[in-house]
Specification:
The chain is of the alpha/beta class and about 650 residues long. It contains 24 helices and 16 strands.
């Protein structure tokens, strides 16, 4: 194995902490290399620097091409500091070294004698990307002659990221932007890349392998704060890209960075700006946004859009996008991104005398653009209609739909003829309202094994990873019960389809659904569903990436991940009746229920009562969200009862 370790030396005055630290760093690096036990492990000590810093490094280090630019070449700062870009430093290493692994450390980080031996040990254990946090030792040490004493100073644990080890091959994918060393947040820029592109990653927080003399934080000076802001901007841009690619899912450290740097706010602003466009409409299409067009004002009036749309519903992560893209391959069908109109948008509406007032439009338009395109053309039109006092909820919805379909047709007559599909899974909770808007609509509900759907939500949505299984399971039950209740009253308007059936025999089920909708089925066209999917999936919707595959993959439904033991029983208690009804009750579930039944015969313990208290609290949360006062009151009573049972036992 070959490891190349690079540092960036700099010529400093005696007033700088580096005046003491650098010579100690260089000497400890050479000593650690001399202590390598495995003769097949080769260590290259490498450096790169500006021309004026060349006389700083001692013998024994390999020189790379010099640095020619600094952060001053990419941005202006109030007080100039010639700080190198981390990309330029690592690029030099990549150009000259064919080592299997690279190491970068700050030039004030000293090494313990066993450093390279332990690094090899970690790599051999299967870890291919890691960070070693330093120890902070006494600032009484001032010279190379004291290194033997330094080794004896255990120091204190420090959280700073300043020693990075990663595969050379992984570096090809790194996104470092123009972040510079010597300023805050550079460690987070590097570790985010190391973590993202490692198969097995670890932060070693308490290994005594590196050290830093004192903790004066010389980099944290207010007058140089604009350098920190520059690095943070690069970090946020990196995290935005990782968010959009799905690389952040299941990576807790990156999710922490996303939260602490308010990355979702930046992402939302970026999405909103992307969805605010000026449409260059062809002649004839201008009628859509003209003064005379008032879509579906009185509902019986003729409108540009057909009044028999298809709504695809379901518990999120159940395959609704897949079904949408399959159906949209057929002739005479148009579709668009999720509108979230009847949930997020409609819940934000202010209504006065049945119309949307002008003063409420700014908030509504922002809510729409957080999810889907709403052009400047459409915005100008709804503002006109609102000023006229005629903008209704249905008019706003149809303007939104039309705005996202108009690019898909050649003329208005084509738009008037084609049926259209809207897919927002949570619209199942607003199905009665949708039915009032569109009495001739059809509804397709996609069902998936709730365990797999819940696990997918936890993996792909960081804000849901910590929600209790009770909340997830009850949410699934609520969605199923909502469609069942509507189907009971309108059996001819609803089709329930299981994702597992769809992926196993897509042709038969799509043909059946085409018949249900009332369109002709073209078998050959469904093979192109991934092309449609690309138009329906935004770049940041990484959780939908499976739908973009050229073939409908059984992976979508047959994920083998399972709920842990602590979650399984509460999940089954909530969902077991529906699991049986829809054929999801497998042997594992049956065995778990049987084991639980045996345990229930034992005396109830306080721990069980605590579990009941948590369950009733979760139920209270659910019913508060859905504004169900009766069930909310019952859940509250159950929670209070559980609480007093526990207190009574404690008093005894």
């Amino acid at each position: 194995m070959k490891i190349a370790h690079i540092v960036n030396p700099v010529k400093v005055t005696e007033q700088s902490d580096l005046f003491v630290a650098q010579p100690i760093t260089f000497e400890t690096m050479k000593r650690a290399k001399a202590c390598v036990k495995n003769t097949s492990l080769k260590i290259d000590l490498v450096y790169t620097c500006f021309d004026e810093d060349l006389n700083v490094v001692p013998e024994g280090f390999i020189q790379t091409p010099q640095l020619h630019r600094s952060v001053l070449d990419v941005e202006k700062f109030e007080k100039e500091r010639k700080l190198p870009l981390i990309k330029d430093i690592l690029d030099r290493l990549y150009e000259v070294s064919d080592a299997d692994y690279f190491i970068y450390t700050n030039v004030d980080i000293g090494l313990m004698p066993d450093f390279y031996n332990k690094v090899e040990e970690f790599i051999e254990s299967g870890i291919d990307g890691f960070v070693i946090n330093r120890r902070t030792i006494s600032n009484k040490f001032t010279s190379v002659e004291q290194i033997d004493e330094i080794y004896l100073d255990v120091g204190e644990k420090h959280q700073g990221y300043d020693c990075f080890i990663f595969k050379r091959k992984a570096y090809e994918k790194y996104m470092l932007g123009t972040a510079c060393i010597g300023a805050n947040w550079i460690g987070r820029v590097i570790i985010s890349n190391v973590l993202t592109h490692a198969d097995k990653f670890k932060v070693f927080e308490d290994e005594y392998l590196t050290f830093h003399i004192g903790d004066d934080r010389s980099w944290k000076i207010e007058e140089y704060s604009d350098f920190d802001k520059h690095n943070e901007k690069n970090l946020i841009e990196l995290l935005l890209k990782l968010l959009q690619s799905g690389a952040i899912a299941e990576r807790n450290l990156l999710n922490l960075f996303v939260t602490e740097h308010h990355v979702n706010d930046f992402l939302q602003e970026k999405i909103r700006n992307n969805n605010k466009v000026k449409l260059d409409l062809q002649v004839g299409k201008k009628e859509i946004y003209g003064d005379k067009y008032k879509p579906s004002g009185p509902w019986k009036e003729a409108a540009l859009l057909r009044q028999d749309p298809v709504f695809i519903l379901g518990y999120p992560r159940s395959g609704t996008t897949l079904l949408q893209s399959l159906l949209a391959t057929q002739d005479n069908i148009l579709t668009l991104h999720e509108t979230h109109f009847f949930t997020l948008v409609r819940d934000s509406l202010q209504i006065e005398n049945g119309k949307i007032p002008f003063g409420a439009l700014d908030k509504i338009i922002d809510v729409i653009r957080d999810k889907i395109r709403f052009s400047i053309n459409a915005e100008e039109h709804v503002r006109f209609l609102s000023k006229e006092g005629i903008l209704s909820q249905k008019m706003l919805f149809e303007i939104l739909v039309t705005d996202n379909l108009i690019d898909k047709v050649n003329d208005l007559k084509e738009l008037e003829k084609k049926q259209w599909i809207e897919k927002t899974p949570d619209h199942v909770f607003k199905i009665d309202i949708i039915n009032r808007f569109y009495p001739n609509a059809k509804f397709i509900f996609v069902l998936r094994s709730p365990e797999q759907a819940i696990l997918s939500r936890r993996i792909n949505f960081s804000n849901e990873s910590k929600l209790s299984i009770h909340v997830h399971a009850q949410r699934w039950i609520n969605s199923v019960e909502a469609i069942e209740a509507f189907q009971l009253e309108h059996p001819d308007k609803v089709k329930i389809i299981k994702l597992e059936d769809l992926v196993n025999d897509k042709e038969s089920y799509v043909a059946e659904l085409c018949d249900f909708i009332g369109i002709e089925f073209n078998r050959e066209k469904i093979q192109d569903h991934n092309k449609i999917a690309k138009e329906l999936v935004f770049p940041w919707e990484h959780w939908k990436k499976n739908v973009l595959e050229s073939k409908v993959s059984k992976k979508i439904a047959d994920n083998q991940k399972e709920l842990n033991e602590a979650d399984l029983m509460p999940f089954l208690e909530i969902t077991q009746e529906k699991l049986k009804h829809y054929g999801y009750m497998n042997d594992r579930y049956k065995q778990a229920l049987e084991n639980h039944k045996k345990k229930k015969n034992k005396p109830v313990s306080t721990s069980v009562e605590i579990e009941n208290l948590i369950l009733s609290f979760d139920e209270l949360t659910i019913y508060s969200l859905f504004k169900n006062p009766i069930k909310k009151y019952k859940a509250y009573k159950a929670m209070i009862a559980s609480y007093y049972q526990i207190k009574e036992k404690e008093n005894k």
